[in-house]
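tool=predict chain=A
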Amino acid sequence: MIYVLVGEDTLAKDVKMNALKAEFLPRHLEAFSLDTLYGKELILVNLQERLLCLPLNAGKRMVVIKDAEELKSDIKEFLVSYAKNPQPGIVLVIDIGAYKSSAAFIKNISSHAQVCRFKEQEASDTFALCRQLDSRRAAASLKILQQLLRNGERPERILGGLRSSWVRNSANSAELKKKLKLLLTCDIDIKTGRLKPAFALERLIIKLCGSQNTFS
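tool=predict ok
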């Protein structure tokens, strides 16, 4: 019995994990029947030993692999093989952060496991920022901007990415012209030192998202 939990919504994944524990592990045996392993530090022999341990009182054992996107290739190969003939008394839960990081592994094991997909965080790049701005989602746009700045992305590259995306995809020339004017004003505010870069970019986002009539 194998479950693959994929995504970055830790709250939803915890709910699913608790439901699995309630289904398979009696509360008074949980401390003796649950092993939690971590992908980055896991070696194959240790995993094999855990999967061979017998459950207590003819019940079930649960083996949970956290951060499974960091598993070594030999362990992934073993798990794909193991999934074809798993131990009947073992409930194996493989917890993976993002689908893209382990797409091939998930595809290979999915025919022998129950895969549960959960919400994943949108990539923090200028394309993601552009999509949120076009949908006038100020809070989501500001969150992506903050992550970009924490990652060391330069303000001029953020502005350049937005400009490139809008020029390439905009079908409304009047709307595009107004967007580019706001970008230019933001760029001038930053380069002249009139405003701090973070504040200038935040103000740009608020202006772009602020009113449904902004570009009418």
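The first strand starts at residue 2 and ends at 6. The chain has a mean pLDDT of 88.
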